């Protein structure tokens, strides 16, 4: 289904892998206000209210992302990670994903690939966030379970995650990591990644 969604329409309507979730849908009006630069202060306050007072885990993950990027608020990695952790505690796939990425990169938290694997797997398998498959593939040498990693990379690529498209395309061209060579498809995926 997600493969067939037009990326412009998806972005315009905030369609993510979690868009059918009620708690995620509660966040959409605030995302629309932020995206249109309409009353940003009110939208941020309402999003904070939804996250903190109502305990919406998607609002927590969105606030974490906002603080991480510094787009609508001052960049604050400590606050970002706090919101990612709170969202992950509430079993939110986006919270798992962003918290796992923080352990993967080790920018503010100590880099810890085992914790990265734990949270990225939770993101992938709990109504998952397919972008997690790319990062799990990247830490494949330390992963406890390795058999599913090529499949997870493929899922991430098929759902249009640019980094996964490139990596999967490269693996199809080179045959590295026991991928069956398919140069035509590999080059198509790399071109698709470049066009995003």
Q: Give the radius of gyration.
A: 17 Å
Shape: globular
Helix-strand pattern: HHHHHHHHHHHH
Distance between the first and last residues' Cα: 19 Å
Total strands: the figure is: 0
Query: Could you list the spans in which at least 5 consecutive residues all have pLDDT below 50?
Result: 1-6
Number of helical segments with 4 or more residues: 12
Structural commentary:
With about 200 residues, this protein is an all-alpha fold. Helices cover about 65% and strands about 0% of the residues. It has 12 helices and no strands. It has helices at about 5-10, 20-25, 30-35, 40-55, 55-70, 75-90, 95-105, 115-125, 130-140, 150-160, 160-175, 185-195. α8 (about 115-125) runs antiparallel to α9 (about 130-140) and α11 packs antiparallel against α12. The longest helix is centred in the N-terminal third of the chain and has 14 residues, at about 40-55. The chain is globular, with a radius of gyration of 17 Å. The relative contact order is 0.08. Mean pLDDT is about 85; it is low at about 1-5.
Describe this structure in a few short sentences.
It is built from 12 helices and no strands. It is an all-alpha fold and 196 residues long.
Spell out the blueprint of helices and strands.
Layout: H1 7-12, H2 22-25, H3 28-35, H4 40-53, H5 57-69, H6 77-89, H7 93-105, H8 113-125, H9 132-138, H10 149-158, H11 162-174, H12 183-195
Summarize this structure as a short list of keywords or feature phrases.
mainly alpha, 196 residues, 0% strand, 12 helices
């Amino acid at each position: 289904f997600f493969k067939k969604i037009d990326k412009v329409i998806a972005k315009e309507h905030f369609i993510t892998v979690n868009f059918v979730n009620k708690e995620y849908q509660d966040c959409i009006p605030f995302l629309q206000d932020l995206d249109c630069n309409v009353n940003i202060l009110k939208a941020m306050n309402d999003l904070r209210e939804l996250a903190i007072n109502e305990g919406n885990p998607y609002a927590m993950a969105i606030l974490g992302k906002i603080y991480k990027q510094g787009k609508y608020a001052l960049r604050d990695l400590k606050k970002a990670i706090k919101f990612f952790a709170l969202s992950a505690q509430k079993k939110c796939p986006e919270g798992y994903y962003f918290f796992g990425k923080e352990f993967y990169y080790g920018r503010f938290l100590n880099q810890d690939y085992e914790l990265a694997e734990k949270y990225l797997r939770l993101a992938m398998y709990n109504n998952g966030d397919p972008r997690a498959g790319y990062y799990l593939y990247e830490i494949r040498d330390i992963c406890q379970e390795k058999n599913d990693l090529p499949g997870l990379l493929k899922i991430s690529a098929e759902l249009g995650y640019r980094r996964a498209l490139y990596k999967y395309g490269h693996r199809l061209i080179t045959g590295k990591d026991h991928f069956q060579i398919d140069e035509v498809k590999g080059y198509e995926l790399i071109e698709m990644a470049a066009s995003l």
